[in-house]
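[scheduler] slot 2 assigned
[scheduler] job type: sequence-to-structure, two independent chains
[scheduler] chain ordering preserved from manifest
[runner] begin chain α
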Amino acid sequence: MISVLIADDEQPAIDELAFLLRQDPRIGVIHVAASGSEAIRLLTREPVDAAFLDIHMPGLNGFDLARALQRFEQSPALVFVTADEEGALEAFDLAAVDYLLKPVRAERLQRSVGRIVEAMKSTSAAEPAPPRQPEMIAVTLGGTTRMIRRDDVRYVQAQGDYARLHTEEASYLVRVPMADLERQWADAGFVRIHRSYLIALGHVSRVRLGGDHASVTVGGAELPVSRRLLPGLRERLESTTLRVRP
């Protein structure tokens, strides 16, 4: 069971997040604090596994609180919960496990709890080592720069000298040629299936390699597989746990 802290100066936001967290069987004790200073006083008495921090709190804001918590002997996993995207860069500089936008969706929160579980497993390994931080990518959407995790990218679509990264929530255009991403991300489970598509094998839900029109389904999108790249895809699939269905 994961013990957590919610720090937010708005009581309705605390109540809503606490309600959603209680629906997850992995969550145990939930502590709440209405300010950064109150959170620190509480955590000196009751250490927690994870802290859900609002950024815009009076006095000690969420980033200040996160820096203070990192100095604790038992430092909790950090998840920032905020109404805007501007703090994403600073959040991941602080090694945040996740960055949630209000209003928080239940399924999105479950993914955050999963990432907390992963971080806890890493720190409790027989030979302690710092958790491997996910590869982060700077993207721009609506004039705002934010960070996304590479393992959230389901597939990449070539668009001239640019590449469009497709995630569950949105797509982002980055000025990186597809050939560069294919080379750099090969070890992360990405494979080229078409001159226009690079896919993450971990997000593949269906494979059709028989017939005249081979395809894979990734995140609800059915993508074509070119004949030239079909042998390479078969080879990669055979080395994974995916079962190829003709």
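[runner] end chain α
[runner] begin chain β
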Amino acid sequence: MGTWDTGHFDNDTAADFSGTVDDTPENEREAVIREALEAVIAPSDYLDSDDGAVAVAAAALVAAQCPGGEPVTTAYGPDKPLPTLSTDLRPLAVKALDAVLGEDSELRELWDEGGDEEWAAGIARLREVLVAASG
């Protein structure tokens, strides 16, 4: 995993996902984000770190449009603007983050082994924004 920091887009996989979002026609970008979230909610086995990294990036894009959400300003996030995303993505993003933080998540395991608590705190902040906006 090419990771250089704890931010939601600070790894090769999330940066590549941003490119995919940019390369997708505007009217299909929401579907790309939805697919990234759905892919991790009910994995058939161990949740791959790449799928987890993409789900975190997708959740960050959803949270950015929520009240209290932080805009995605990193150079590794999408360059093109997103359409206004459906509010039904918010609880889906919460479920995706819960899966990424779950026992069967390689991404969580890698961060736990690294001993860096900043990553988990960032995920918790994303989750808080999404939960508050879902209610």
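[runner] end chain β
[qc] chain β: Residues 69 and 129 are 6 Å apart (CA to CA).
[scheduler] slot 2 released
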